[in-house]
C-alpha cells in the first residue's frame, strides 16, 4: 500500500483513477481546486458534476488544500486539463517537501510550445522534487473504468523502474497496465487521437457511415499521427498499440467521448462556441488541433485531415467543403516509408 495523491477532480482522475487506486488499497487523497466541489462530493458521496452514476469509495479522502493532500505521498497522479498542467506544477513546487514520482493521465499538446505533458511537467517542476514522470494512457473511458469494465492501458517512462512502479500502483483484475519506454509515442498517441475523434464525430454528424470513419481512423489517426510522431522521435510500432489504434477506436466510436460528441455537434452544423458551451467538460482535441496543425507546418509533414479539422474549427469552413477537398486531393500511394521520413529529418 502506498500514499498517493490524485490532482484534478474530473471524471478521469477524480473519479475513475481514484477508484482504481482505492480498490488497490492505497491511501488515496483526491485534490480539487474547487472548495465547493469538495463540499458537494463529501455530501453526495459521488462526483455529481462529472460522473454522477457511481459512488465514491468511503476510504477516499478529498482535499481542497494541496499541501495537506500531498503530505508524505510517494507519488502524485496529475489529471487536470492540459491548460492547467503548468499552474498545477507551480502550486506543487510551493508546498511539496519530498521527492515524488509524477504520473500523469492527461491527453494534450500545449499550443504555444508544442510540448507534450511530460515536457511541461519536467520544465516546471523543481528537479529536487520530481524523481521521474510517467504517462498512463490508453483506451479508457472514465464511465467504463468507474464501473470496473475490463480496461487496458500503458504506463510509459524512459525509466523502466518508474513504468513498473506505475504498473504496480494501478494494475488489478479489471485494470490491466502494460509498460513501455516510448513516452513520446504514448503521449502523442493519446493527445493526437482527440483530433481524429473530433473528425469522426463531424463525419457522423454529417450522416456519413462506417467507411468514412474507418478512413479517418486509418488515414488520419494512423498515417498522419505516425508520420509526425516518427519525426518527433516516437517508435512507429507504438501506434499499433493501446495508446495508438486502441485509443483511436475507443474515442472515435463511442458516445462517451467528449471529442466525438463535440465533433458530432459541429457536423450537425452547430457553431464551435455553442458546442463548447454545451459540453461542460474538457474537449482537449480543440487546442491540440491548433498545436498539431502548426507542428505539421513546422516539420513539413503532410497532415491533410488534421488541417481539414483545423479549418472547420478555426477557419469556419463547412465540414462538407472540407470532405470534398480531402476526397479530391491529388492521388497518392498509401504507405509511407518511415525510414525516408526519418532520414529527411536528420538531413
Ligand atoms: N474522461 C476520460 O475518460 C479520460 C480523460 N483523460 C484526460 O484526462 C484529463 C482530464 O480529463 P477529465 O477528468 O475527463 O476532465 P473533466 O472535464 O471531467 O474535469 C476536469 C477537472 O479538472 C479541473 N480543473 C480545471 N482547471 C483546473 C485547474 N486550473 N486546476 C486544477 N483543476 C482544474 C476541473 O475543475 P472545475 O470543475 O472547477 O472546472 C475538473 O475537476 C484530460 O486531459 C483528458 O483528456 C484521459 C483518459 C480518459
Ligand atoms: O481519452 C479518452 C478515452 O481513452 C476519453 O476521450 P474524450 O476526452 O474524448 O472523452
Automatic annotation (TrEMBL):
GO biological process, alphabetically ordered: carbohydrate metabolic process; glycerol-3-phosphate biosynthetic process; glycerol-3-phosphate catabolic process; glycerophospholipid metabolic process; phospholipid biosynthetic process
Record-listed substrate binding positions: 107, 258-259
Family classification: Belongs to the NAD-dependent glycerol-3-phosphate dehydrogenase family.
Top EC class for this record: oxidoreductase
All residue ranges annotated as the Glycerol-3-phosphate dehydrogenase NAD-dependent C-terminal domain in the record: 182-323
Glycerol-3-phosphate dehydrogenase NAD-dependent N-terminal domain mapped to chain residues: 3-161
Chain sites annotated for binding NADPH: 11-12, 33, 50, 107, 142, 258, 282, 284
Pathway: Membrane lipid metabolism; glycerophospholipid metabolism
Gene: gpsA
Main location group: cytoplasm
This protein's record includes keyword Cytoplasm: yes
Residues that, per the record, bind NAD(+): 8-13, 142, 258
Protein name: Glycerol-3-phosphate dehydrogenase [NAD(P)+]
InterPro entries recorded: 6-PGluconate_DH-like_C_sf, 6PGD_dom2, G3P_DH_NAD-dep, G3P_DH_NAD-dep_C, G3P_DH_NAD-dep_N, NAD(P)-bd_dom_sf
Amino acid at each position: 500500500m502506498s500514499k498517493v495523491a490524485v490532482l484534478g477532480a474530473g471524471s478521469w482522475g477524480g473519479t475513475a483513477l481514484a477508484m482504481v487506486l482505492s480498490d488497490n488499497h492505497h491511501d488515496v487523497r483526491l485534490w480539487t481546486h474547487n472548495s465547493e466541489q469538495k463540499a458537494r462530493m463529501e455530501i453526495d458521496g459521488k462526483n455529481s458534476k462529472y460522473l454522477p452514476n457511481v459512488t465514491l469509495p468511503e476510504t477516499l479522502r478529498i482535499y481542497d488544500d494541496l499541501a495537506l493532500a500531498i503530505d508524505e505521498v510517494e507519488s502524485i497522479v496529475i489529471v487536470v486539463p492540459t491548460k492547467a498542467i503548468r499552474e498545477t506544477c507551480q502550486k506543487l513546487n510551493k508546498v511539496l517537501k519530498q521527492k515524488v514520482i509524477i504520473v500523469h493521465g492527461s491527453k494534450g499538446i500545449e499550443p504555444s510550445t508544442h510540448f507534450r505533458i511530460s515536457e511541461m511537467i519536467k520544465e516546471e517542476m523543481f528537479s529536487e522534487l520530481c524523481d521521474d514522470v510517467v504517462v498512463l494512457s490508453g483506451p479508457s473511458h472514465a464511465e467504463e473504468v468507474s464501473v470496473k469494465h475490463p480496461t487496458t492501458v500503458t504506463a510509459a517512462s524512459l525509466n523502466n523502474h518508474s513504468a513498473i512502479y506505475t504498473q504496480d500502483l494501478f494494475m488489478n483484475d479489471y485494470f490491466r497496465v502494460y509498460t513501455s519506454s516510448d513516452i513520446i509515442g504514448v503521449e502523442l498517441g493519446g493527445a493526437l487521437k482527440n483530433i481524429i475523434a473530433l473528425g469522426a464525430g463531424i463525419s457522423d454528424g454529417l450522416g456519413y457511415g462506417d467507411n468514412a470513419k474507418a478512413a479517418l481512423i486509418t488515414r488520419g489517426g494512423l498515417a498522419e499521427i505516425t508520420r509526425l510522431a516518427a519525426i518527433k522521435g516516437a517508435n512507429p510500432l507504438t501506434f499499433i498499440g493501446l495508446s495508438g489504434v486502441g485509443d483511436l477506436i475507443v474515442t472515435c466510436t463511442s458516445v462517451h467521448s467528449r471529442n466525438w460528441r463535440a465533433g458530432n455537434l459541429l457536423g450537425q452544423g452547430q457553431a464551435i462556441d455553442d458546442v463548447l458551451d454545451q459540453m461542460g467538460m474538457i474537449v482537449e482535441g480543440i487546442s491540440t488541433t491548433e498545436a498539431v496543425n502548426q507542428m505539421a507546418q513546422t516539420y513539413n509533414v503532410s497532415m491533410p485531415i488534421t488541417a481539414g479539422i483545423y479549418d472547420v474549427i478555426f477557419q469556419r469552413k463547412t465540414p462538407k467543403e472540407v470532405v470534398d477537398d480531402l476526397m479530391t486531393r491529388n492521388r497518392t500511394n498509401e504507405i509511407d516509408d518511415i525510414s525516408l521520413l526519418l532520414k529527411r529529418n536528420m538531413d
